[in-house]
Request: fold
Amino acid sequence: MNDKMKILSICGSPRKGNSEAIINRLKENFGHKGIENEVILLREKNIQRCNGCVEYCNKYLECCHKDDMLEIIQKMLKANGYVFVSPNYFAMPPGLFKDFIDKCSVLYTSYCFTKKPDLSKKRAIIITVGTDKEFIDACRDYISKWFLETLRIEVVAKKSFLSRSELKGNYNDIFKNKLNSNIDKELEKMANKLCDSLKTVGGVS
Ligand SMILES: Cc1cc2nc3c(=O)[nH]c(=O)nc-3n(C[C@H](O)[C@H](O)[C@H](O)COP(=O)(O)O)c2cc1C
Reply:
């Protein structure tokens, strides 16, 4: 049975800035292709920090916090593909995004105990932004290897782009800063890769 392709974009920045500009540009791109793309800005969500009470989530296979993660996880389960965009803070995602990652551990725990949900047919692209190439690559690879690989979500493309920290009111600075030649082309290629990979996995049109 063919389903319509659904892509969920998750923005890990605590501010309106470069990451969000990239997510919005990709949304336009998916729109031109007629693909449904919902955007979640983590900065607008109530995500309580994981308090490590694994006795609860191991037993009930859900989090004890009834916060916005409930809705986010439902959307993740319904989507076929994901876009994750995050700033780099000290070669890692910001605390906001790390809180989201930690709260996704219910997906991991549940799979370990019940083999559900099986996320192995989901596909993702990752983009990180920051001022230093080595750090942004490390952040990108952290998200890819230690978050998405753990959840068995295949990463089909990942890239980092150079930003300027201060936006001075220009929320689209990443497209104007001249530090990334062909950023639009690169984003388009990533969007295409994600869509093509989902068609190959099957079940989506
Ligand atoms: C607390 C903090 C730590 C940061 N650490 C780094 C860093 O280690 N290396 C780097 O290249 N940029 C670092 N940055 C710069 C951000 O990655 C950069 O401003 C990025 O564009 C922010 O993305 P955004 O505009 O999407 O919020 C840091 C910024 C903040 C606020």
